[in-house]
């Protein structure tokens, strides 16, 4: 699956949501397009969906400690299919992606759809499938923003996915937009965005970093047994670019008269753009690992049952996404 470079504009589009109708109205009248989560509107919607009084009381008590976890917990109590899908994701079970995609496809409740989309994006990131994660999180930002308490998290992980693809320019654009939109996001996300920006800007300026990004993409393809003509062509391009860069470095050294020239800019990538983890799956920057191993440990009939459901119970856009996900999951063991 290829992700259009136009996806990089998703956060910029979010910045424009609710833009002033008149050109005379300046940005100062609209400090941010982001609207804070409304707990009471959410509680009313959950009451209509069947939430009991004690569930709503628990939500109101928990929301002050973290709106994201509190809202997700209430959704899981009201929608049992969603709860089962999230438990599968938390446990790193391969069927989680299918379960969440089915929830998204069938959801009539916009809160449920938004949370399920967010969770599906996280599942794809856990499986090292950043293009699919970016596609799902882009849908969230376009269709579900300004409704749930997960906007900041979705924006952060969307930007992170773009950087992993790698679409470096787009990731930079979106991390910058994230910092403008969500100045009051949890500290771990703000720190992570700033670290990611520093690393991405260095990669943007460095030919070696650009080459490293291409090598990472090829490595991901090979690890998932994608060794076709396109991957081979990318490998050849990397080799050719590396040879040219080495020639340029040697020429610079000859001109400067000393190994390495006078540049003081580091060429090694930052060790990590991840911030300290949060306390829970919602909002946590930790990844769930071992999904590929679990897929390999499943009985053949269980894998075939999942693949059949992908073919028969999903709309075309998710069918294609999940077909590729499970095919590559099997090749990454």
The CATH homologous superfamily of the largest domain is named Tetratricopeptide repeat domain
The backbone outline, from C-alpha atoms, is globular
Number of domains: 2
- What is the average per-residue confidence, as pLDDT, rounded to a whole number? 80
CATH secondary-structure class of the largest domain: Mainly Alpha
CATH architecture of the largest domain: Alpha Horseshoe
The count of β-strands is 0
DSSP strand content: under 5%
CATH topology of the largest domain: Serine Threonine Protein Phosphatase 5, Tetratricopeptide repeat
Secondary structure category = mainly alpha
Largest sheet: none
Radius of gyration: 22 Å
- The N- to C-terminal Cα distance equals 20 Å
Query: Helix and strand succession?
Result: HHHHHHHHHHHHHHHH
Question: Can you give the helix content as a percent range?
Answer: 55-70%
Number of helices: 16
Q: Show unreliable segments.
A: 16-31, 258-273, 275-279
């Amino acid at each position: 699956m290829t992700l259009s470079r136009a996806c990089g504009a998703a956060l910029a589009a979010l910045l424009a949501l609710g833009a002033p109708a008149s050109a005379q109205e300046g940005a100062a009248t609209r400090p941010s397009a982001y609207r804070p989560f409304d707990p009471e509107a959410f509680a009313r919607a959950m009451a209509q969906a069947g939430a009991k009084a004690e569930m709503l009381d628990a939500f109101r008590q928990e929301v002050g400690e973290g709106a994201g976890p509190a809202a997700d917990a209430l959704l899981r109590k009201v929608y049992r299919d969603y709860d089962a899908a999230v438990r599968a994701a938390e446990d790193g079970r391969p069927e989680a992606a299918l379960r969440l995609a089915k929830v998204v496809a069938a959801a009539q409740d916009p809160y449920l759809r938004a949370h399920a989309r967010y969770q599906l994006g996280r599942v794809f990131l856990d499986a090292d499938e950043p293009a699919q994660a970016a596609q799902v999180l882009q849908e969230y930002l376009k269709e579900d923003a300004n409704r749930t308490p997960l906007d900041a998290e979705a924006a952060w992980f969307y930007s992170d996915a773009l950087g992993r693809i790698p679409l470096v320019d787009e990731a930079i654009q979106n991390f910058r937009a994230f910092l403008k939109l969500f100045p009051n996001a949890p500290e771990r996300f703000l720190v992570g965005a700033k670290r990611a920006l520093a690393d991405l800007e260095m990669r943007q300026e460095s030919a070696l970093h650009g080459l490293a990004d291409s090598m990472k993409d090829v490595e991901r393809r090979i690890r998932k047994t994608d060794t076709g003509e396109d991957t081979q062509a990318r490998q050849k391009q990397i080799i050719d670019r590396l040879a040219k860069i080495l020639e340029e470095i040697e020429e610079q050294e000859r001109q400067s008269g000393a190994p390495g020239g006078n540049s003081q800019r580091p060429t090694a990538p930052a060790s990590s753009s991840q911030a300290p983890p949060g306390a829970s799956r919602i909002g946590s920057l930790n990844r769930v690992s071992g999904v590929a191993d679990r897929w390999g440990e499943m009985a053949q009939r269980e894998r075939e049952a999942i693949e059949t459901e992908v073919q028969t119970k999903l709309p075309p856009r998710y069918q294609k996404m999940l077909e590729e996900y499970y095919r590559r999951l099997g090749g990454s063991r």
